[in-house]
Design brief:
The complex is a heterodimer. By secondary structure, chain A is mainly beta. Chain A is built from no helices and 11 strands. In chain A, the strands form 2 sheets. In chain A, strands 2, 4, 5, 6, 9, 10 and 11 form a 7-stranded mixed β-sheet that branches. Chain A has a 4-stranded antiparallel β-sheet with strand order 1-3-8-7, with no helix packed on it. In chain A, strand 4 and strand 5 form a beta hairpin. Chain B is mainly β. Classes of the chains: A mainly beta, B mainly beta.
């Protein structure tokens, strides 16, 4: 089954404790992206990757890092989480084909930073 | 980045057609118009996309104005399962950034 998986699904942590949210896709997609969703602000793009070793900032990259060492994985790293990073996070992937171009989203990771 | 404007909410009766509007007056010639929807407690899911011509698929139809400054997502027969937030998005030529906007919350009444 074609899917994007994220782990963990729920995470409660404390300020300053480094964490990683993993994202993996089994569709051989080149493009992967991370979003955060906050009430009243909708979905905002954090980082995206056009392919292995190619990453770039979205609209809200501050406080986040990403890496793309393998095509299937695109982890989101919070080196020193703060309470304003409490949010619902979604990973997505797609193949940059204008004809197909359907972005598949993971189930989301709800992060709480106290 | 080109942005979109949508009504905050709309309401429809079950089994009636729904027309969800979107304005994108700053669209560029190479921007594709995408629609996604987000059901409660789920990630967004793709609905449809197009460039200039109207498009149909099993989920919906997309009507694009001749000047491309607006578009309309058409659900031909709304069901209770169609209650969701619908996002109109412009996807640039380089396929990099993806701006969702605030979307339209569709409520479907039985």
């Amino acid at each position: 089954e074609a899917q994007v998986t994220q782990n963990p699904r729920y995470l409660i942590t404390v300020t300053g404790k480094k964490l990683t949210v993993t994202c993996s896709q089994n569709m051989n997609h080149e493009y992967m992206s991370w979003y955060r969703q906050d009430p009243g602000l909708g979905l905002r793009q954090i980082y995206y990757s056009m392919n292995v070793e190619v990453t770039d900032k979205g609209d809200v990259p501050e406080g986040y890092k990403v890496s793309r060492k393998e095509k299937r994985n695109f982890p989101l790293i919070l080196e020193s989480p703060s309470p304003n990073q409490t949010s619902l996070y979604f990973c997505a992937s797609s193949s940059p084909d204008r004809v197909q171009d359907e972005q598949y989203f993971g189930p989301g990771t709800r992060l709480t930073v106290t | 980045d080109a942005k979109t404007t949508q009504p905050n909410s709309m309401e429809s009766n079950e089994e009636e057609p729904v027309h969800l509007p979107c304005n994108h007056s700053t669209i560029s010639g190479t921007d594709y118009i995408h629609w996604y929807r987000q059901l409660p407690s789920q990630g967004p899911e793709y609905v449809i996309h197009g460039l200039t011509s109207n498009v149909n698929n099993r989920m919906a139809s997309l009507a694009i104005a001749e000047d491309r400054k607006s578009s309309t997502l058409i659900l031909h027969r709304a069901t209770l399962r169609d209650a969701a937030v619908y996002y109109c998005i412009l996807r640039g030529y380089n396929f990099n950034k993806f701006y969702f906007g605030s979307g339209t919350k569709l409520n479907v009444k039985p």
